[in-house]
Amino acid sequence: MSKSGLDAFKYDQTEEKIDLSKKVRVGIIGTGWIAGSHIGELKKMPDVEIVAGADLVPGKAEAFFKKFEVEGVKCYPSHKELCDAGEVDAVCVCTYNATHAECAIYALEKGINVMLEKPMCVTLEEAVAIRKAEKASGKVLTIGFQPRFDNNMKMVKDIVQSGVLGDIYYIQTGGGRRHGIPSPYGTTFIQEDTGVIGAMGDIGCYSLDMVLNAIGYPKPLTVSGYTSNFMGKDPDYFVSEGKPAEYSDIFGVEDFAAGFVRLEGGIILDFRIAWAMHLDTPGDTIIMGKKGSLRIPSTECWNGSIGGDLKMYQRVAGKDVVTTFPMLPPREKSGFYYKLREFINACKGEEATLVPSEQIIINQAIIDSIVKSAKLGKEIEVEIPEI
Ligand SMILES: NC(=O)c1ccc[n+]([C@@H]2O[C@H](COP(=O)([O-])OP(=O)(O)OC[C@H]3O[C@@H](n4cnc5c(N)ncnc54)[C@H](O)[C@@H]3O)[C@@H](O)[C@H]2O)c1
User: Fold this and answer.
1) CA–CA separation, 145 vs 321, rounded Å?
2) Pocket of ligand 1 (CB under 6 A)
3) Which one of 30, 181, 200, 273 has the fewest beta carbons within 10 angstroms of its own beta carbon?
4) Which domains are seen in the chain, by residue range?
């Protein structure tokens, strides 16, 4: 009757049916590194027409579409001209973090549906402005958290939501890399004027989403935060990675952050994230409940996917028991494909699984509060305005 941990969490892969009677005209804003993943997946969709692109760097958008062999795309010098042209139903905002908010808001105000890359933006104030623009527009907005579409993440959520752990009271999460400051494709991730936030915006937001999504995204009440940049400011780090020592001069974001967060419902969230550190991992994710706890193994290169079988610890009939939930194999297509597929479905008015800004504003509020608390050197209260 009951299924074992081995086969209970096999998610059905329903066959994809795409309605070809409606097409979605898509524009890509920001034609850098990650835009390559967007165009690669969008090209696989028969109901998508890639019609426009924009980049601040002259000639970059034109070269991008040539490289990806998409013809007839109109290219613009910034998000504004692209949105003003009135040729698209939807845009993918693939710009560096600093311009996420202005691009998303401008597009929404022009009545265009938006897939906004993660992190949502760089401050809570920006996140509030995006939510307001979204509400006023009535258009689709989804945030680019592709780990959400991974079956293992679904399993984590389903286990927690089943209530088997009882009330949750403590969570430890985060992730890290021993040498993982992203700079192979340029420096916009590590510069203050373009990245604004570092490890938190790149990979910390995924750790927060994994656990907050599982527990229903309660609001943060207070945050005590810490940030540092010891690795990024060390020229030897970059030299040992085969990059110029000068990268340490322009390094202007955090490579490590930690936060102690009190959430609504009496839940403590203990978070840490590292782009680089003298350590293998900063520890597994653990979700502790009054009836049971879940351990989610970390990886040595945190990127939003779990590192091994889940283990659940309980006391049953006076005995300590451990249940193993084996890691599920990857889905047929990449998380990137599914996040875009769901967005396109939503643009066509079909039922879709989005990553709602209503939730991600909470993720952003925690990151923002860590930054602010770290600057002040003390715990701060978090207030997310009603929108
Ligand atoms: N989901 C993922 O797995 C994933 C992976 C990597 C990066 N990202 C996110 O994607 C974003 C971009 O990262 P990247 O490495 O591609 O950066 P990048 O610097 O390679 O590309 C960004 C491009 O945006 C352009 N741009 C900036 N503002 C613009 C504007 N107003 N109008 C038009 N073009 C504009 C820049 O000129 C640049 O070419 C980041 O926010 C990052 O967090 C997501």
Assistant:
1) 34
2) 29-35, 54-57, 60, 78-79, 94-97, 99, 103, 117-118, 144, 146, 185-186, 188, 201-202
3) 181
4) 24-146+336-355 (3.40.50.720), 149-331+364-381 (3.30.360.10)
